[in-house]
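Priority: low. Protein: Pyruvate, phosphate dikinase. Input follows.
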Amino acid sequence: MATAAKNEADAQYVYRFGGGVSDGGSGDKNLLGGKGANLAEMASIGLPVPPGFTISTAMCTRYYEEGETFPDSVRREVAEGIAHIEGITGKKFGDPADPLLVSVRSGARVSMPGMMDTVLNLGLNDQTVEGLASASGDERFAWDSYRRFIQMYSDVVLGLDHGAFEEALEVAKEDKGFTLDTELSAADLKALVAEFKGLVDEQQGKPFPQDVHDQLWGAIGAVFGSWQSDRAKVYRRLNDIPGSWGTAVNVQAMVFGNMGDTSATGVAFTRDPSAGHNAYYGEFLINAQGEDVVAGIRTPQYLTKTAREEAGAKPLSMEEAMPDAYAELAAVFDQLERHYRDMQDIEFTVQQGKLWMLQTRSGKRTAKAALKIAVDMAAEGLITRDEAILRVDPQALDQLLHPTLDPSATRDVLTKGLPASPGAASGAAVFDADTAEKWAAENKAVILVRTETSPEDIHGMHAAKGILTARGGMTSHAAVVARGMGRPCVSGAGALSIDAKAKIARIAGREVREGDLLTIDGATGEVMAGEVATIQPELAGDFGTLMVWADEVRRLKVRANAETPLDCQTARDFGAEGVGLCRTEHMFFEADRITAVRQMILAEDEKGRRVALEKLLPEQRSDFQAIFEVMAGLPVTVRLLDPPLHEFLPHEESEFAEVASAAGVDVETLKRRAGELHEFNPMLGHRGCRLGVTYPEIYEVQARAIFEAALDVAEKSGEAPIPEIMIPLVATKRELELMKAVVDRTAKAVFDERGKTVEYLVGTMIELPRAALRAGEIAEAGEFFSFGTNDLTQTTLGVSRDDAGRFLGSYVEQGIYAKDPFVSIDVEGVGELIKLAAERGRATRSNIKLGICGEHGGDPASIAFCESVGLDYVSASPYRVPIARLAAAQAALKARG
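Result:
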């Protein structure tokens, strides 16, 4: 209790901004959240920011720790914050004559667009609405603000049925023959307020709260509460945002974009967030409030005349309709971009001709835009090359490394919307987020089709290959979230008529039902029936420039996991510096050689096995030749046979007769042998080097194929590959010694036969905890270690990666693991073993080569760990090689400090 009392006495939880006061600034994002820190910063550099205060993220943490209650000290601080706003605006909170109204908004450390709650126009009640009407001289505006407040507060704070209020609004418009909210008169809105209040009374059994202080604390609690909403949790999980961070709450004097034709609200970016062009990009609405733009309720107008003309739109742009406010806004754009040295995402309001800034933050952007903006800003001298490298999220490059629509392919265009997030996607149309998630889990590609998306759709948007909406602009919720996720999105496709309940969309006399194939092109806005062919991307221009810069600063080498010539060529085209893992067992499953493999397995003695292996030798040699030709002059790590033998035998009854006939044995013999090879836990069974110890002839033939192929390629190309022969699943030095002897003996035999040699190494895959612990003595025999982090994670945690999906999500949500350990290295456990093995291996053999070849090789956080422990290379799947190159560069820059 004493500690709590001390916290209450000493802690500051409320920070003011505006009116010449800034208790915080842009460096306080962890405490004030991104929105609060940037509001304070904008106020401090003299921009027009409505005054307000921020309740810190620390209070959010305490709010949950103390049973969702507020200490008296915070109530006093909030009262002082309200007094601060009153002093600057000259208005009083709750004053029936000229009331102060406030907005209550969330603000996490990092942008989470639309995931948490907002309440606008707070402070209105049956008395203050009359005062607002009188003071503003605009009765319609006052009642419009009150109906908006009741609707929003009832949804966000009281948790009432949002649809009932929407329905009442639509009926009110229909009764008058109106299509827009703005056509409703003051009397219409007054009647609607009465209806809304009746809905509140009916749904919660008590009237809408009239005490403005009760309203305020209800809203603050709701915003803190929204941090733990389902949609916020999903967004945090998808974006690796810790639940412990909490959100701040920003309370700010209201400014009004709904005060007639001289007022407006808008969202803008200082550069194009889709393509990255250095041009203002944004939308606004006259006589509206901010939620109207971001929620996609009305289709907004363009910011600039150029954008309007390019789109062929008729409604005037802000540049044309409000030239003075636009000119001021353009000057603010330039000031903010120079100040923050990054592209900014801005919310603004114009109240009766006066511009107010409501938010700025580093804008979410596509990978293409991120590359262009980073490279352009470096060229402009706004940032350094190193900063440009650090600006691009490596994972986002995935958006650029996959096919786009073939421009020459036939397209059955149904309609065209706004190109909200680039990229192309085909899939089955689905009309709700739950179905999208369910079908995606069944490996079906889906396009989520909605009238407009809401934050509750986040899980379906993530599951979908692309998103299509009938309403909303290029700064709507769907557009912003899709860009952040790297999902193609077409928004504002106004010709779409969607019946979500019937699961059908109608477009120009045609119908799209659930399950029908659609293709969307987020670069053009086209919506097409069926599936459209794709082409491979061109990775030049800004991509190539940034990769050159990244390669100049990274220390870690980047290789690829590849076992086909096509994979190897793809990897080399993406800048791979060799192969870090070539799995030879994949070659054994080819249809033209599986019979020989099965003959080898079924053989009763070494002689029989060698007969079958001789049939496989030329096939294996040919495989390695094709790989070595692509990778001539580069290291290629070949893992000798790893899986248990039973994996190569038939499992279905119908296959046994076919295999028995091909192998020249009877069905019963085959079944008996399959039974003998069956293992209860094959992951820990007779596999890896244990096969080589039992049947050394298998590894001998593989080694011969490798050396003969290497010599052939060296002779043909003049450039020898560097085979690194990897013995899998080693737990002891003796296992590696035995297998190295087989490889070395075979190498000598081949070199003697051919009269030529090639450089080669023999090493092991460290994938067992014992191997990591005994790495010092294993390094006496091994010339390199490749950490097989997939199996090392399984054997260290005692968790099967094939089955862990059933429960690992719950483990991450509850903080048992910070991330899925099969996606990002478990630094405290698996990472500690890697660090220990690296230290002990190098103590024995100072020049031992160290790398990783599990799926973690393409994960930026895992790559940063590899940099920290001084590994020599990482190996990733071919399409993740550029991601690994950029992540390695970022890790090197961060390590320098």
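Residues 1-8 have pLDDT under 50 and may be disordered. Residues 606-630 form the longest helix (25 residues).
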